[in-house]
Amino acid sequence: MPVEINFNLNIYLSICIEFVICNFMEFKELKKKNKGDLHKILAESRDKLRDLRFKDANKQLKNVREIRKIRKTIAQILILLNKQGEEKAPAKEQSQIER
């Protein structure tokens, strides 16, 4: 019996580690995208989230955790888009202050 418990625990830990690595790698991949690609991915993610919410309301969604993953992806994209906007915005603000 103890062998089976240890084996199941090892499988569980490996799945958790893969989940964390996949999310981290996905964010690294998002960082490499340009602004146009991020907007396209954002629109697709929002459409998918809307579809998942409809499925959840109709009790057709098996894996509710997908909603959480999509929301996290949307948040990461918005963070990247805001950071890209901040890099360009201070130059405009400084020119307005000088006037």
Gap between N and C termini = 77 Å
| Number of extended strands | 0
Total number of domains? 2
Please report the number of helical segments. 3
Look at the helices and sheets and give the structural class.
mainly alpha
Question: In words, what does this structure look like?
Answer:
This protein is mostly helical. It has two domains: 1-30; 33-99. The chain has helices at 2-32, 35-57, 65-98. The longest helix is centred in the C-terminal third of the chain and has 34 residues, at 65-98. The model has no long low-confidence stretch (mean pLDDT 79).
In short:
This protein has 99 residues and is mainly alpha-helical. The chain contains three helices and no strands.
Q: Secondary-structure map with pairings?
A:
Layout (H helix, E strand, L loop, with lengths): L1 H31 L2 H23 L7 H34 L1
Helix pairs in contact: 2-3
Keyphrases for this structure?
89% helix, 2 domains, 0% strand, mainly alpha, 3 helices, 99 residues
